[in-house]
Every structure is written in structure tokens, then in C-alpha cells.
Amino acid sequence: MNKFVMLVSVLFLFRYSRAQEFLGVRNSNYAGVQSVFLNPASMVNSKTKWDISLVSAGIFIDNDFFYIPRQQVSPFGFKKMVKGIEDNRILSSRYDPQNPNRRYQLVSSGAVIGPSFYLPLDPLSKIGFTIAARGYANFHEVPGHIVQNAYKNLKDPALWNAPWEDHSTKFNSISWLEYGLHYGRVLHQTTNSELNIGFSLKYLQGIAAAFTKNTNLNYRVTDSNNIILTHSSIDYGGTRDFPDRKLRNLVHGTGLSESIGFTYIFLRDPSCNANLAASGENTMGTEYSYRIGISLIDFGFINFNRHSSTYHLQTDSASYSGIGRSSSSENSGLERSLTDILYQNDSIKHLTADRFNMALPSAISIQADWNIYNHYYLNATIIKGLGHGSRPGVIRPDLYSITPRYESGWFEASLPVSLLYYGRWQPRIGVAFRIGYFFFGGDAPGGLSGIADLERADVYAGIHYFPLERKHRSKYLQCPVMEY
Asked: How far apart are CA 368 and CA 442, in angstroms?
């Protein structure tokens, strides 16, 4: 089995985390715990007084090199597609022999959110806890000849005996567990508006990470088993498996991350809602005309200091043999090449550190939500990923979205329309539904449905439990308020 192709299949179909944005869910007034991942202040004015998330999961990938032709896609037939990729039968590439230096991008992510909750502390504040497993990977500015050589397992004669260069590739990947404490409260009220604030502090356990930077490679593939490097250098690092594979040895480091957010809410009926807090009634969940939020999310890093190393490789001339040989029990292609070059040739590599920091996919986000009429809303969300300079770290793609939605206590439907930017612009149209306590959807489901070539996927689903509200008349004011 070609393990490099298996790696691609895992990235391609099950991605090990961009932080899922769950566009059709997280801006809803019934998002529950999901809302704190986009803006921790959002839970304050939620229409759910408390929320318990049982489990949710999402996968995301976007790339412009690999794809599965739509004729080979069985609508949501994951098992068949994975088998086809594993057997190297259905995966195709967009490599252009006329432009072998064209640069390609791949970003992938995944998240599984376990039992989590929030609940009110008092009429003006809420507290919550989340637990999640997340992962992220970025391949940025990778020349086509690099990926094609890996895809073809160095067995494409058209790529042999040509001088190839790579001065651009950046690779970062990370997976981790996180345990988050969230707090939000009403910061200020006036007769017609409300300002809320929210904080998140997360303890992180790093499971695995790898990176490359300062790439300067000049290479020649002489045949399917041999590569020659000349005047080349690269910095790289990563985690290694422990000899003792006990559960505690999954963790290679620890860290912290923070999020902070604000929401400004202009109430739909100011005269009706202004004095609810003074009268001792719950103002959270009252209707608004519009809501504007801003947040800084996933700001932090993990210090990988257990079985972790960084290296600098430099050589004027080096030859590597036996790289392309493969069998059912050994690595091949790019995976074998990297193993041989980066880890087995100590004469040209130098250990630079036994630890490194990996930054998280931090971002600034702006959300605007307009209550058009009764149950109909229009949401606009911007997510701007932050770079990390020369430091290792995964980068969140930029996202610009418009999402119309219908929401009520027992049913919700939304249609996210978005532009994703990660080295190129990618338009996407998604769909999401909530039926009672269960939600599912995707921000780019077209490829999985078989109506287009499959080169990107973004799907999510989950189940959470919350009390559905009933409206009654305040005994202090003739206003409809929420009762749970």
C-alpha cells in the first residue's frame, strides 16, 4: 500500500483540522456551546438559557492539486472513495507539465467536540466548559514538480534528469486536545442596547506537530530510486513516537490559548426590554434588530518539549539511493524520501533544539446578524487568519461569508455563501439544518454529492440538548420574555 497516497486520502476526506467554522450553525441564536468557538460573548444573548453538547464533529479540506473526478464520486460514499484512493485508482492531479513550477496550496482541518456545556451564573452572566480534539495542516506554495514526484512515487520519467528548484514550500501541521473554560456577561445596558463580553481560556495538550521553513532545495531525480541534492538547505522539526506507546506518551507538550469577544446588540423593542434587568428578570435571549460582534480567537501556542526536535540540513552535494523502492510494508514516495533525507543522513543535518513552539490558527473575526423579519435573519461573517512571521504555526484561511437563515425553536435552515482565501480565491455554497437538537451541514458539499470534481470538502454534524423557550408576559412589563 502506498502510504503517501493513504496520507493524502486521510487529508482529502477526513482532514485533521482548519478550525471548522460551522458557518450554518455558530451564528445561530440556538448554536449553544458551538457559538463560543467563534465568539465567546455570543452565548450571553443566546436563546438557550443553558446548553449541553453531547458530541459534534467536522472535517474540512481545500486544495488545488489533487481531486477525484465527479464520475468516480459516489454521493457520500466515503468507504468506496477511500478504497479507490488507497488502491491508487481514482485520485487524479492537476499537474501541468507546461508549467511545472506552478505553486499549489492545501489546507485541512478537523475537530471532534466532546461533552461540553454552558449555564447561567446569574441573570447577566454565563459560564461554560468545552473539551475537544482538533488538528490542522497547511501546505503552502508547493511547486508542482514536488507534489507530482511524490504522487507518482518518483516513477514519472518525464520528471527525471531535470534540474528542479524549490525555494517556497512551507509546511505546518499540528494536532492537540483542548480543555476550555468560558465566561460571558452583560457589560453595559442602555434603554435600547446591550454590550456583552466573553473570555475563553484553554489548556492544550499537544499530540503531534511538524514543520518546514527556509526551504532552499535544488534536486535532480535520476531514476525511480535516486535523488541528488546540490547547494540545498532547509530547517525542519517535529515530534517522534515514544518507544513506550502508553496513553500518557501521546502528549508531546502543553500550552495555553485565549479568545476574547464582544457583541453589541440593538434591541428590537427598546421600550419593552429596557428595564427587564432592573425588574429581576432574565434579559438573555430577548429579540434584537441587529447584533454585531468582534473577536480574537485561538491566540496561543503549544510548547512541544517531549520527544521533539528541530534540525538544520545543509549540503553542497548529496546522493540518496533506494528512495523509490516500496512494498506493502514500507513507506514510499515523498514519505520515504523525507525519512531518508531528513532523518537517516546525520552527516549533513544538525540538531538545533530539542523543543519548539507551534502557534495555533489564530484569527480576528467580525460577525453581523440582522433580524430581517420574525424568524428570518441575514448574517455576514469575516474571519481573517493571522500570520506567525518566521515562527512555526498553522494559518487559518481568510473567510468572507453571507448566510441567510430561518430559525425557530424546533427547526432551522441556512444557506452559507462564502469566499475562502488561502493562496487563491475559492467561492463556496453550503447548506445547514437543525432539527430539534440535531444539526448537520456543510460549507462546501458540492464535491461530496457528485455534482462536481471532489477537491474540497467541508461537512459537520452534532447533537446538543437545550431547553426550548416559551414566551410569556412579564409581570413587571407588558413585554414578551423567555421562560425555560
From this structure: 20
- Cell match 506554495: residue? 141
Type of residue numbered 62: D
pTM metric for this prediction: 0.83
Q: Note the helical H segments in 390-435.
A: none
- Write out the E strands in 360-479: 363-373, 376-385, 398-407, 411-414, 417-421, 425-429, 431-435, 438-442, 456-465, 470-473
User: Cα–Cα distance between 461 and 61 in angstroms, integer?
Assistant: 16
Handedness of CA 19, 25, 28, 29 (dihedral sign): negative
The pLDDT profile of the chain, 484 residues, written as one tens digit per residue, is: 333 333 333 343 333 333 357 888 899 999 999 999 999 999 998 989 899 999 999 888 888 888 777 666 565 555 555 555 555 566 778 889 999 999 998 888 889 999 999 999 998 999 999 999 999 998 889 999 998 888 888 888 999 999 999 999 999 999 999 999 999 999 998 878 899 999 999 999 999 999 999 999 999 999 888 888 899 999 999 998 887 777 778 899 999 999 999 999 998 766 555 555 445 444 555 678 999 999 999 999 999 999 999 998 888 888 777 655 544 333 333 444 454 554 545 556 688 899 999 999 999 999 999 999 889 999 999 999 999 988 999 999 999 999 999 999 899 999 999 998 888 888 888 899 999 999 998 876 555 555 666 777 788 999 999 987 544 433 434 454 444 3
CA 368 distance to own-chain centroid: 21
- CA 425, CA 399: separation in Å to the nearest integer? 10
Domains and CATH numbers, the chain: 3-483 (2.40.160)
